[in-house]
């Protein structure tokens, strides 16, 4: 895995690859905790797999994370499209 940012296929979206479960200042565990609080434990994984998000270059959460987009950037995109309450942002 590379450590720096690279231009993605989605019109220049910057991505970062992390190797320790910490991507862009947000740990993946925190990301999934927030997803579970927003959507419910049963639905969060399904939503992440199936819902295509325009600000992520028309990728799903799973695709964006697999492509190396930081968890923080993915969470910001989720907040933008899913009407996440301020206390979870």
Notes on the protein architecture:
Helices cover 45% and strands 9% of the residues. It is mainly alpha-helical. It has one domain. The strands form two sheets. A two-stranded antiparallel sheet has the order 1-2. Helix 1 (28-39) crosses helix 2. The radius of gyration is 12 Å and the shape is globular. The protein starts with 5 loop residues before the first strand and ends in a 7-residue tail after the last helix. Residues 1-22 have low confidence and may be disordered.
Name a few traits of the molecule:
89 residues, mainly alpha, two-stranded antiparallel ribbon
SSE order and pairing:
Elements: E1 6-7, E2 14-15, E3 22-23, E4 26-27, H1 28-39, H2 41-50, H3 61-66, H4 71-82
Antiparallel strand pairs: 1-2, 3-4
Helix pairs in contact: 1-2
Précis, in short:
It is built from four helices and four strands. It is mainly alpha-helical.
The N- to C-terminal Cα distance equals 28 Å
Domains counted in the coordinates: how many? Answer: 1
Strand order of the largest sheet: 1-2
Low-confidence parts: 1-22
- Structural class, by secondary structure, is mainly alpha
How would you describe the shape? globular
Biggest sheet, open or closed, and with what strands and sense?
A: 2 strands, antiparallel
Instruction: Report the total helices.
Output: 4
Order of secondary-structure elements: EEEEHHHH
Helix content: 40-55%
Quaternary organisation: single chain
Strand elements, count: 4
Radius of gyration from the CA trace?
A: 12 Å
What is the arithmetic mean of pLDDT? 80
The fraction of residues in strands falls at 5-15%
